[in-house]
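OP here, attaching both records as promised.
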Amino acid sequence: MGALTMEDNTTFTDLLSDGEQMFTVFAPTNEAFTSFENSNSNDLNMILANHVIAGSSLAAADFSNMYANTAATNEDGDNLSIYVNVDDGVQLNGQSSVIISDVVTTNGIIHAVDTVIDLPTVVTFAVADSDNFSSLVGALTAEGQPDFVSVLSSTTDNKPFTVFAPINSAFEALDEVPEGETLTAVLNHHVIAEANIVSADLSDGLVSPATLEGDTVSFTETDGSFTITDGAGNMGTAIVKADVQAINGVVHAIDMVLIPNTEN
């Protein structure tokens, strides 16, 4: 409770006292707060808000491997995402586990967690959601590749990032996964720096800013859904999960690996 009211701050307690709205709250234990170092110097109010799903009262049985939006926001006011995994208990963003569940209150449900859930980066979701992104993480960390993890974890340099993240089946569909400089170019073709492009920003025929590789991608709308044409001209890559929002950018899961133009 001390963290909620530090220096007479009532922002968070005012939010949770709203009787007109239901909440799901992931409440760190005393030990969790004691061990939390806030190494990124993130705003405490925003960290606390990252433990709250507003508008829903979710019991442990309601969770699946899923994304939800928290009350925390980025600089643009977009709500940050949280990834819930139930393969072995209830884990949050791959870093915090529910240790006491389903404490019911008049305006929601509280779940005690063993670790403070810091504000996620785009890397947080790639690592936590291994069901979808383990192949991508393997490519990003392959021998000889740049330090993509450090680049995409940054909350200061070149952020925000828009990341088009191929799911595991996208890599499986390749005849072979490229290596070396070719792999570097392919991976860079999935990242746009200094832009937080959410699905609401897309339009039919839109051409993106240059990716880190240098080529652009373009978008086609059909019945409200968007597909991507990559730098090599391959069409029809579907966005299968949009707007996974991190503090330093946004992730869109896609069903094919984007290939840059190798002739320019």
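Record two, same layout:
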Amino acid sequence: MTVGDEVVKMEGHLAVRMVRNDAAAFERLLVEVARTVQRREVSAETILVDVFNINRTLKFIDAVWQASGIELDVNSFYLWPTLRDLAGAMADGSYRNVPKRIRIRQGTAPETLVVFAGGASCFLEMKDFVNALAFDGTVYGMALTPFGRPAATPAVIADEVAACLAELDASGFAPPYRFVGYSFGGLVALELSRALAARGVGVDFLALVDSPQSEHAWPLRIWLSFAAGRLLSRGGQAPATGPEEPSSEPSKMQRGSRLARYRRTLRRLAFRFLSPKTESYPTFVPQWQGGYPPAYDLAARQLLRMKGLFRPSRYEGPLVFYRTEGGSPVDCDPKLIWESYLPAAEWVDVSGNHQTITIGRHARALAADVSRRLAAMKKA
């Protein structure tokens, strides 16, 4: 609630009373929230990208929003590296000024590499990969544009590509470009490369990392095979039938559980035929969890509609497609749906699964291969 120029918020044990431009009060709040989320000592001068991962960042952002009414951007830590810096940005309102192109690692050479994250463009999920790159140039992240359009007329990937082109034009980067796109970010990197090729502008290096397509775009044969496998898996197995049990309270509970499983299965199968322009569409997507702060909720809904409306087309340019050995429980083998559209792709199987490919040893292995290719191109 607001009292004069003061903001008062209650969330759990947090009670904050602060003047809107009081940087010291914001700093105290941020330090308390950070310590709670990290479960360890965090100071106002701690370099945030060094200690936060994506999951704890999202928890931190949610807790700050609940306590202050201010929702920070998922990439704020790259712009305001410490809690003290971030508190100052909250006090003067500059926390809202998040650019589309964000420098996530400074280099010493003039070359640049642009990365496109999955999800709602939180580049912390690619932190381990970026840190492990043996690349002398500067690494930038290209964030998704919040178009803010209604469900009936949503933004599509072509809109995002146009925004990326404008940003590249304004950046002063000299082509040819180098792109790495993880998950949904790979779709943007691919279509941006296509648009640049149409302009006659070169893309020296394009890598897609386990990038999916929405199941709306899968050939029916592939979708049916995947759906059948999911139905028979432990998580989606149809309840077994057997002799009628005597009426009892436990059997009623079992029947209720079976009915709930049937409903979940039918809901999951129905998703294939649901229009991304339906208001409730994002809540049917398997990855949807809900309970997000407002801006993140809008970004997630926009991204899911973009993915749902995307339809692939043939791309003749060279690229590397990194396919994880562990895959994803909600997506089919990407080679089944991409190979015919990417005739010049080099397919490289890498360790890990869709969630772990950008973390720890899997990220380092991926970075080593990307670094080797970038170095070879520089020598050529």
